[in-house]
Amino acid sequence: GENVEQHPSTLSVQEGDSAVIKCTYSDSASNYFPWYKQELGKRPQLIIDIRSNVGEKKDQRIAVTLNKTAKHFSLHITETQPEDSAVYFCAATNGGSQGNLIFGKGTKLSVKP
Amino acid sequence: KAGVTQTPRYLIKTRGQQVTLSCSPISGHRSVSWYQQTPGQGLQFLFEYFSETQRNKGNFPGRFSGRQFSNSRSEMNVSTLELGDSALYLCASSLRNGYGYTFGSGTRLTVV
User: Fold this and answer.
1) Which of B9, B35, B43 to mutate to test binding with chain A, by most A CBs within 10 Å of its CB?
2) What average pLDDT score do residues B10-14 get?
3) Which residues of A touch B92 (CB under 8 A)?
4) What are the chain B neighbours of A49 within 8 Å (beta carbons)?
């Protein structure tokens, strides 16, 4: 089955800097890669996703890139703000009836003012 | 529209007891998945239901079970609770398995 590795486990940046979180996946059939943000005591919320037919997707200050050949994808946050502080999870699935969403172990991002 | 609703929000149980958690998905969502979240292990997949059928199951012991009703509401049950079952249990619903999950707020289970 699918296995998703996520790095780093913790990341501390200064406000205004960029943050990058990287994930690798094992199942070449995976075709959907979402990112979730979980603030302390709250539910995970989908912030951006990408499908395997697209190499990059942007939404304001966040972007995701996908390298299917290397089986890795990354989350980029630019101009970080204190409210970006949270745990970020990457995930992967092949989307079929047997394709469950498998998550990485998370990255705790701290943005220092 | 209403989000994913999980009840109860908090539970304290004693070792050996059993517990039932409930999840009401977003209206129209037929896929419901359950995850166990612990600090060290992240989000671990328990099982997924679609149209009252369990299609997938994660690597958890048989003490963990679930079901889905005709209105797509789902329940999960844990029997013979162990201290290690203490966790946040999250359910997520979607139109299609794996895509665009919306999570509930979770049930925080503490086993003492």
Assistant:
1) B43
2) 98
3) 101
4) 100
Cα separation of A96 and A99, whole Å? 5
SS3 content of chain A, % helix, strand, coil (to 5): 5, 55, 40
Nearest-10 Cα torsion for B67, B69, B72, B74:
-30
Contact A103 B33 (CB under 8 A): no
DSSP A83: G
pLDDT band at B96 (very low <50, low <70, confident <90, very high): confident
- Token output for B13: 């149980």
- The residue type of A57 is K
What are the two backbone dihedrals, phi and then psi, of residue B84, each rounded to the nearest 5 degrees? Answer: -70, -5
Task: Please give the structure tokens belonging to residue A29.
Answer: 């059939």
Q: Give me the half-sphere count of Cα atoms (radius 13 Å) on the Cβ side of residue B34.
A: 33
- Confidence band (pLDDT; 50, 70, 90) for B95? confident
Å between A96 CA and nearest CA of chain B: 7
